[in-house]
Amino acid sequence: MVVAGTLERRLLAATTTGGQWLLADLSGQPHDTRNWPTWAQKGVRLHQPSDWLTTADLSPEAVTRLTRPRILLAALYRPEYFPLPRFPLATSVRNRRCRPSRLGVLQRLRSSTASSTSRAGIT
Questions:
Q1: Higher pLDDT among residues 33 and 114, named by residue
Q2: What global pTM score does this model have?
Q3: Is residue 121 scored above 90 in pLDDT?
Q4: How far apart are CA 11 and CA 16, in angstroms?
Q5: β-pairing verdict for 44-46 and 115-118
Q6: 50 - beta bridge partners?
Q7: What average pLDDT does this structure show over 6-26?
Q8: What region does 19 belong to: left with phi over 0, alpha with psi -120 to 50, or beta?
Q9: Nearest-angstrom CA–CA distance, 23 and 31
Q10: DSSP letters along the chain, please?
Q11: Which residues pair with 109 in a beta bridge?
Q12: 45-84 pLDDT tens trace
């Protein structure tokens, strides 16, 4: 299952047992009102584009695009000096830029071996 897109127009994509995908526009708007990126126009074939919930055929490239690239941000810090890691990398801005085009996954890795994931393309 993949959740992608902006907060206003979340797209839920889930695989079915027949190899097709189930796509749901969580805003309740029909899929044909969505501004699809060029790669999605070529790689996603909606069965009922005028509905908010439909099955679809996704090309292997579209599946890869929805689930990748995975971006790993690493920041070294010392917990005894800084209880939380400091990210001067504008992570929230990067997430906002990635979501509309469903670019992938943004993950932060901390030096204490704990990590947190923010799914930029899959939130």
A1: 33
A2: 0.58
A3: no
A4: 16
A5: unpaired
A6: none
A7: 89
A8: left
A9: 9
A10: -EEES-STT-EEEEE-TTS-EEEEETT---GGGS---HHHHHHEEES-TTSSEEEEEE-HHHHHHHH--EEEEEE---TTT-SS---TT-HHHHHHHHTTTT--EEEEEETTS-EEEE-TTT-
A11: 74, 115
A12: 999 999 999 999 999 999 888 877 666 665 555 566 555 5
Rg (CA), the chain: 17
C-alpha distances (whole Å) from 52 to each of 2, 34, 43, 105 are 16, 10, 18, 24
Give which of 74, 67, 27, 71 is closest to 51, Cα–Cα: 27
- 11's tokens: 């797209």
- Whats the size of the chain, residue-wise? 123
* Token couple for 44: 């996603």
Q: What is the phi/psi pair of residue 27, to 5°?
A: -85, -10
* Whether pLDDT at 18 is above 50: yes
